[in-house]
Amino acid sequence: MIKHHLIIIGGGPAGLNVALAAQKAGLDFLILEKGVLVNSIYQFPTNMTFFSTSQKLEIGDTPFISHSDKPTRKEALEYYRRLQQATHLPIKLYEPVQSMAAQPDGDYLIVTTKNNYLAQSVVVATGFYDTPRLLNVPGEDLPKVKHYYDDAHPYVGQRVLVIGAANSACDVALETYYKGAEVTMAIRQNEIYSKVKYWIKPNIENRIAEGSIKAFFNTQVTAIHPTSVDLEGPDGPFTIENDFVLSMTGYQPNYPLLAKLGLPISAEAGAWPLHNPDTLETPLPRVYLAGVLCAGRQTSKLFIENTRDHGDIIVQQLLAGPVHLAE
User: Which of these, 52, 125, 146, 271, is most buried using a 10 Å CB contact count?
Assistant: First the structure.
C-alpha cells in the first residue's frame, strides 16, 4: 500500500488549492473526489453567472480570464480543468471515501469504494453543496421534487412551487417565470430574505406585488403529492395544484461522512466541524479542514474567495512537523 505525505478529500476549488500549495512545497499527495472534478460547480445551474469576479476565484496564482468581469459556470469548469491538467495534480475521480481510521504509528488509513490509502496527514475539503437541506415531509422523494436547479426549459407551461426566499429561490422563481412557468413561492418568513442580491430583490418583489408570481409568506410545506402540495399558512392548512417542486432551501456539509471520518461537530447552531481557526487542524492530529466546510451550516460566511489562504496555512503546519516516508 502506497503511503502519502497528504491525502486531500475533495476535488473542488478548496481541495485543488491545498494540492497546489502541497505541490509547491514538494509534498507527496493525492486528491480523492467522489464525483467529477469541481463536482459542486458542475452541479450549479447551466447558465449561472458567479457573483464573484474571476480574479477572486483564482487559486494557485493562476490567472482566471473570462469574457466578462463575472465568469459563468462553463468558464469556471474550464478554468479548474485546465489548471488541474496543466499542473498535473494527482486526483482520483469517482472514488468516494468511506472511512478513515488512525493507525498505531499515527498514520491514517483511508478506505474508498475502490482502494485503501495511508497518509501522514489528511485535509478534508468536501464543501457543502452536495448535501441539500431536506424538508423532511411526506412525498419529498417523489420524482417531481428537485433540490438542484439546472435549466428552466423542463418547467415551461408547468405549475411550479419554489420553496425558499434567498438568492437561489428568487433566481429560480424569476427564471422559470420568464420562461413560461406558473410560479408560486412558499416562504417561511414574512418577506423576501433581506440579503438577496441587490439587482434581484426588487425584481422578485415587483413580480410578487403585481401578481405575476404568487407568494405565500409565513407558510411551509407539510406534504407533497403527485399533482398537489399541502401547505400550512397563517390562516391554516390549504392545498395547491402542482406539477414540480423546486426546493431551494440551501445546503449543508455531509455530516454522515464527517462522522465516518471521526470528526466531531460543534453543538452550536452553526454545526461546524471542530477545528482551530488559526491552524485549521481538527481535534484529530494532522487532520485539517479547508474551504467552506469550516463554516458548517453557516453557508453564507465562507466562499472560494475568502478561503484561498487555507492551502498555505495547512502546508505551513505540515512543514513545521516531521515529514518523512518509508523508502
Answer: 125
Contact in structure between 121 and 19 (CB atoms under 8 Å): no
Could you tell me the domains of the chain? 3-131+251-320 (3.50.50.60), 145-247 (3.50.50.60)
Mean of all residue pLDDT scores within the chain? 94
Which pLDDT value is given to residue 1?
A: 78
Which of 228, 290, 306, 302 shows the shortest CA–CA distance to 7? 290
Side chain identity, residue 141: D
Say how far residue 181 (Cα) sits from the centre of its chain.
27
Chain Cα centroid distance, residue 305:
14
Tell me the per-residue pLDDT of 179-204, one tens digit each, with 9 for 90 and over: 999 999 999 999 999 989 888 999 99
List Cβ neighbours of 115 (8 Å cut-off, separation of 6 or more). 92, 95
Sheet containing strand 228-233, strands side by side: 220-224, 228-233, 236-241
pLDDT, tens digit, for every residue of 8-22? 999 999 999 999 999
Cα distance between residue 258 and residue 324, in whole Å: 27
Q: How many residues belong to the chain?
A: 327
Q: Please choose, from the candidates 225, 222, 135, 241, the residue with its C-alpha nearest in 3D space to the C-alpha of residue 182.
A: 241
The helix/strand/coil state of 124 is strand
